[in-house]
Here is the input.
Amino acid sequence: MLKIDFNFGLLFDRGAKAQRRIKMKKYIFATLPICLGILCLVTKGIIGDELMADGTIVERNFFLIPLSYLFFLSGIILFIFVATLSRKTKIAN
Here is the structure.
């Protein structure tokens, strides 16, 4: 059977396994910012800080900490949005 899917164009009727795989791709997009936030914190930890002779700390990559918080927050909001949107479409069907 031929059907039109607005997200992926003209497609043939898929099986249940393929439809579940497409639904899970939504959650991959939601968890991607969380993974980027973890990557920012790991990078900050690996690169580290420098202690000068007079006792001051030089943090060249300090921007990675608030950037990781931003990624975490956006990932959580996106995950909640995708979960509620998929629940609404499931109830409608």
